[in-house]
Structure formats: C-alpha cells, structure tokens
Specification:
With about 350 residues, the protein is of the alpha/beta class. It contains 13 helices and eight strands. Helix 4 crosses helix 5 (about 160-170) and helix 7 packs across helix 10 (about 250-270).
C-alpha cells in the first residue's frame, strides 16, 4: 500500500505574517548601507579638505609648465650648463633644496628640479600607470619646452629609474648621469603587495580617500626615520618638510603606482644598462635600510662600462643629506667630462 505524503504549503496568512519581518530586514540593511555610504563620503570629504589645507600652507615656490596635458611644477635657479634633479618617492623637488644639493649646484649651473607627476604640486592624470619610461618621456618633452639642452640628470631612489630611462631611451637629450640610492637589479620588494590594492580602479579610489591617509599619517614618521637611518632625521627636514603631502589621496596614488611599477622597470632595463656610453656616477650609502648597496649600486657599476662608484660609509638611503658637497662635486665632474664617442 503506498503512503500518501502531504506537503504543507505556507498559507496566505503565514506569508502575510512574514512580510513585516522581511521588510524589517530590508530596512535594516538599507540603514546599514546608507550609514556606511555616509561614513565613506564623510571620510573622503575630510581627507580632501585636510589635503587642500596642507597645500595652502605650503604653496608652490616655483613655476609651472604644461607638457602632454600634464601640469608640472619645477624649481629653476642659477646659470650655466643645465642640471636636472629628479626626486624619489614620498618627497618632492623641495627635497633637493632641504638637502643643500640644489643651492650648491646652482652656484655653477642652471638647476631645474621637477616635482614628478602626482608629487608636490604636479598633476598626474588618470588613465596611465606613469611608469619610469613614461615619466622620462614627459621630462624629455619638458626639456624642449623649457630650453634645457643635454643636462646632467641626477636621480635619487625611484628618481634614479627615471634618470636611467632618460639616458637609455633619449641618449641625445642627456649629457651624463648621477644616480643615488637607486633600485636597479630585480630583487623582491615586500612592500609592493601592501600598496598594490591602492592602484586598483574603484576600490583603490575608495581606500585612498578613506583608510590610506589615516594609516599613512600613523606610519609616515617611521618611514621617514627608516629613510634617514642610521642618521637622525635632519633638523631642516623636520622643520620644513610638508608632512601632509605624502598622505594626500592623489599622492598616495602616485606613490603606490611607483612602487608597483618599480620591478617591471628594472626588468625592462636589466639587459640595456651595458649599452650606456655616457659619464655615470653611482652613489650609495653602505647602511642603506631601503635598498641594499651591494645588490644595486655595486651591481649597476659592474653593468655600465666606465661608470664610477662612490660608497659613503655609514650613510643610509638619504645620502644627499649626509654628503651634499660630494654629490655636487660629482655633478660638476660629469658636467665637465667629455662625452664618449
């Protein structure tokens, strides 16, 4: 005999009684989403306001030139053969002034220090990752616009990648190179995964305008201490560096993109360094906690025929603060050198 199963379906009354519960859940979800959106918007507005406030406190001290749709801020001083200074990550063109290199070099040359795209007061349009090669091309066009003919190009840290790309891709535009504390060989960087999410469109925008400025403000003193270690942070840097600049949402984007594209840039140039045929000075500190001088400066010296290497004992990543006079002397020597044929 076959048993008969009876399926109890919800009655109309039961369905109606469940509707208020579902409506209540939807209402709570809507409230949570609304409050979350409001919190994100408030954080973004606050961080934007704070960034604009620090920009008003530290207005541009140089001039502007628009090249390829990018508005670049630059400092220009002195007379004579041209020297272009390219800063690293976190800082801007003012770093060369605070270190003393700018003034020492301007005593004998026309010195131009650019804020790289997204740093200081320079723009960084969306739609590009702004690799070292891209930035080098932008500066090459700026040279034409400003009448800068075959300068000695000086690059510190990430800026050294731009300097090398200029010499490799536009050899007719560069007289010689001085590179300091740069990343040249392909070695693992553990900081890249931490900042990579900030480069993702959409999600990265939200993070940069909300969470990143808060974390950045908390970590910035430690990062700067590591940059100068084992030396203390110089008094002039403490007094005059615009600490709010590196934690602006738009500069966080520039810093994150630079970190992500650093290793690909080194890979791209890895086999081309040996083809450089111009005066090259390589400087590095033996106590650099950011980039190993053995894995990078010494390695690059072995790759470039005729290059000269100067290791500064006891100095950290910011060698231009420890020995600004030595950096200026290297610049003078490269400027005076005959270009190899």
């Amino acid at each position: 005999m076959t048993g008969i199963r009876v399926h109890n379906s919800p009655t109309r009354e039961t369905r109606l009684s469940n509707q208020p519960h579902r409506q209540q859940q939807r209402s709570r979800l809507g409230t949570v989403l609304g409050l979350s959106t409001a919190a994100v918007a408030a954080a973004a507005l606050f961080n934007t306001y704070r960034a604009r406030k620090v920009e008003r406190k530290h207005p541009p001290k140089g001039r502007f030139v628009t090249v390829d749709g990018v508005r670049l801020h630059y400092l220009d001083q002195g007379e004579g053969s041209p020297v272009v200074l390219i800063h690293g990550n976190v800082v801007d063109a003012g770093d060369w002034v605070l270190s003393g290199v700018f003034e020492r070099t301007a005593a004998h040359h026309r010195v131009i220090a650019f804020d790289r795209p997204g740093f200081g007061h320079s723009g960084r349009p969306h739609g590009s990752m702004w690799t070292a090669a891209h930035q080098a091309t932008l500066l090459r066009h700026a040279f034409r616009e400003l009448g800068i003919e075959r300068p000695v190009v000086v690059g510190h840290s990430w800026g050294a990648l731009v300097a090398l790309e200029l010499a490799l891709n536009h050899p007719d535009a560069v007289r010689g190179l001085v590179v300091l504390s740069g990343y040249y060989d392909v070695t693992v960087r553990y900081d890249v995964p931490l900042v990579a999410v900030s480069t993702v469109p959409g999600v990265g925008d939200v993070i940069r305008y909300t969470v990143s400025p808060v974390l950045g403000a908390a970590l910035l003193p430690l990062n700067i201490k590591a940059m100068f270690s084992p030396q203390p942070v110089p008094p002039q840097f403490k007094r005059n560096f615009p600490y709010g600049f590196p934690i602006r949402p738009w500069q966080i984007r520039a810093e994150s993109q630079d970190a992500v594209t650093m290793m690909p840039a080194a890979i791209d140039m890895h086999q081309r360094f040996r083809h450089l045929r111009l005066p090259v000075f390589i400087l590095a500190g033996t106590e650099d906690r950011i980039v190993s001088h053995e894995s990078h400066a010494t390695w690059l010296h072995d790759q470039i025929p005729g290059s000269r290497l100067q290791l500064i004992n006891g100095a950290g990543h910011m060698v231009h603060y420890v020995r600004p006079q030595q950096v200026a002397a290297c610049i003078n020597e490269v400027a005076a050198a005959r270009h190899p044929t």
